[in-house]
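Sanity check

After download, print the first record. It should look like this:
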Amino acid sequence: MYNILNIITAFIPIVNAKVITLRKPKLSMLVLLTLLFAVFTLGYFLGISQRKSQMTVSVSNSVIQKPQEPVQTVKDREDETVVNFPVSINHAGKEELSALPGIGEVLAQRIIDYRYAHGRFTSPEQLLNVEGIGRNRLEEILDLIVIGG
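Expected structure tokens:
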């Protein structure tokens, strides 16, 4: 039988005077193919056995998020209107909009008129198109308004 050195050297071509020959090519090809088959088969079955291992994932109750509560509730003292923040600028009425800081009844009506004339707001920045609302006032109410909802 061949020892490991003979098997390895059988695969190494011998270069002699521009002629490349293999020692015992039929036997060496057979051994090479057998070794390759054995290695790939072993790797395949090892890979399958590792995929079959079970993994358990546990989720604690602290990770599960609960629905968000309104940020703030304001009760208007005059007519007992309750306003939940954030306020939807596409659905809010005059009372809800005028509960926002810096937005009185006049600006609330302008927001409603703009919404009626131009359709729903698609971004909070569109409030800058309403007369009387500037960048500072928008930044003041930005955390208290939403587009939908």
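If your output differs, re-run the checksum step. Summary of this record's structure: The longest strand covers residues 72-75.
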